[in-house]
Amino acid sequence: MADLLFCSHYPFTQQAKEYAAQHRLELSDSIVEKAEARLQDALASGRIKKAADLPSAQEEEIAIYAVARMVVSAANNRYLIRRYALAEAKRAGEYLSSDLSSHPEYVEAVAGELGLKFEKQQEGFLIPFAQYLLFTPRSVDYKLSNRELAAGKVRVGKQERIRILEEAVRKRIESSLPMKADFPQSISLAAARISALIPRLEAQAVRIGQENYPPCIRKLLEDLSLNINVPHTGRVVLAMYLVNAGLPDDKIVELFRPAPDFSEKTTRYQVEHIRKHKYRMPSCSTVDGYGLCVAECRCGNPMNYKESVHGRRLKELEKERKA
Amino acid sequence: MSMAVHQASKEEEFLRKLFSGFYTSCQLGVSKPQQREFGFGGWEKKIEFRHIGVKGEAELRARLVSDAPLYVSYSVAYYEFPAARPMVKKNWLGADLVFDLDAPAHSCGKFTCGQCLAQVKRETIQLVEEFLVPDFGFSQSEISVNFSGSRGYHVHVVSDAVEQLDREARREIADYITGTGLQFDKLFWEEGKKLFGPRPSQGGFGGKFARSFLARLEDGSFALSISRSLKDPAIRQKMRRAIEEGNWDPIGIANRKKKFQEKFSSMMLSLSGRIDSNVTADTSKLIRMPGSLHGGSGLLAKKVSMAGLEKFHPMEDAIAFSSGEAKVKMGEPVPRFSVKGEEFGPFEAGETRELPLAAAVYLLCKKAAVLE
Asked: Which residue of A has its CA nearest to B136?
């Protein structure tokens, strides 16, 4: 017997899929409309509103989710997929947090479904380190060096467990899209309307002297342009670099736009904050400590890269001239 | 594949012939050769040709015998199409987790001395026994160690649990081992008058530090550098009991945070491992193929069991050529060295000697002598 409340909270689970299959949920205009609204929310705010836990709404939630996936698949756009998966994961995270006290078995079920092996301890939970590395952001807070690691397992707190589940949900949804199928016309039409709302990113590709940027910064820019969810430390380092490299705030904010969880207000605030407090670019070893170093260019500080590279080239040229 | 036109020296031809002979009958034992990319090197470069794929061990052996490379590398990665280029077309399927440990830079230079080899061996044992097994939980059967053939050791971990990890995750593992990003403030915190910190029973660097700290507490000058009152054995005992519960200041230590932080920074250096993080993080690294010959020494990149590592000595146990002699002329001064317990040198530049084959190959590979 399927638990309808569980399925409505976590429509990406096998149980919800089975429920949908058994009950032949209808593809009515009203459901398509609501699925479209779900995607509009995801695109505009990076969030999806939680529905009221009314029995009548629960079945509908499952149908809306299924239809939203069809629309995303029909639109088949990388940015939409990433932003949508992130919004679904945040929604799931909110439910996981609230279910923790009222339905702790739901949290266990979601973890089990995602193959995450948490072991309950007196203090927090243990998780295999490889799963920990797969589903935590590469940030100072999750740095493995500062963690309790023994017998292949890392200790995490209650909230961190939810965060790990959220990330696993995001990856699960993202990797399952787009579905390949022929969709009915009502879906294609909705997809066309949603596609029109996707920000035109190509138009604002800013390329100013990027060949002089160090490899770590180029990698961050590249990841952003591929709509990869760059971790917080990566964004801070990138913003510090760009501010120190003399780019105006508007241009910097535009570079962040492809991020799946982009919020113009937050980005602008943080860039202005960095400029106002005159934050200096952290050294290469600090950047490396954040796990952002991707090459050994030995420039000491990413800001020195241009000079160090040009310096080396000059020396090589001189050598050639002498020889 | 087209071979570059290149006039091989007498020495190179001699070595290639020997190496080819070695590969006709040596044990290979490479896991999944059909999914790995191989790289071959010659007299000038350790990797001259790469993107080499083979259908299986028989083809690999045939290539080694006919091409007679002086260096053989293979990818830590498994690919669907190992010979495809560019890299993305290979279709990465997963990779072993590897650690590269090199002897420290030392004045011994190209004739790596016994002391340096002994130190890097100790560090290899430390990596396995203090990190890979207790912290990361790998079983001995997932870990294999081989001599690099030159100045250090490689540790390969073959495990489903880590095969899929990306660069960033592998960098995190390397950072953990080297203690990169360790922060005192993440392990110690104050609550009112109390200072809490790691318990010796706990995992990770916190536990390592606490255990190591307690072990040193009986050392008089160490204890005194924390607090004069620790002269009293009863107070030391009180301190020990409290730390076991994660309470680091039961006795009111002046300047406690600064003192513990100093101890932490200095002790972390000996508690952390020294590996080349870039090798671990590189998911498509080409690394010396275990069991192959190293063209810079003529030594075998021999697999060594953990039980045998303590007693392993490259200049005795990684010798590939055990019979025959060759006459060589030194091109530079050569310090004393030993092969299979027999001492040679020191030699002066210009000296000519008839040496056992292994010793002659060693000097030829080091480019310290020529055939006479």
From this structure: A152
- The domain at B325-371 falls in which architecture? 3-Layer(aba) Sandwich (3.40)
Any catalytic annotation for residue B102?
yes
Q: How far apart are CA B199 and CA A122, in angstroms?
A: 15
Q: How far apart are CA A300 and CA A298, in angstroms?
A: 6
Looking at chain B, list the stretches that DSSP marks H as alpha helix, in order from N- to C-terminal side: 10-25, 57-67, 114-126, 160-163, 167-178, 184-187, 204-216, 220-224, 233-244, 256-271, 277-281, 306-309, 314-317, 357-365
pTM, whole model, 2 decimals? 0.82
pLDDT band for position B130 (cuts 50, 70, 90)? very high
Q: Which CATH number belongs to the domain containing residue A72 in this structure?
A: 1.20.930
Architecture field, domain B10-178+275-317: Alpha-Beta Complex (3.90)
Based on the fold, state whether residues A191 and A213 are members of the same structural domain. no
Neighbours of B241 (CB within 10 A): 11
Site from A129, A153, A171, A233 to mutate, B interface, most B CB atoms within 10 angstroms? A129
ipTM score assigned to the predicted complex:
0.90
- The pLDDT, as a whole number, for residue A39 is 96
Residues of A in contact with B206 (CB under 8 A): 148
- Domain end point (choices A150, A165, A195): A195
Question: Average pLDDT of each block of 10 consecutive residues along chain A (323 residues)?
Answer: 87 93 84 94 89 82 94 92 93 95 95 95 94 88 93 96 96 94 93 88 51 84 83 90 89 88 89 90 79 74 76 63 67
Domain boundaries, chain B: 10-178+275-317, 184-271, 325-371
Does A145 contact B179 at a Cβ distance shorter than 8 Å?
Answer: yes
pLDDT in tens, B358-369: 999 999 999 999
Contact B203 A151 (CB under 8 A): yes
Q: Least CA distance to A146: which residue of chain B?
A: B182
Interface test with A, best of B96, B166, B175 (most A CBs within 10 A): B175
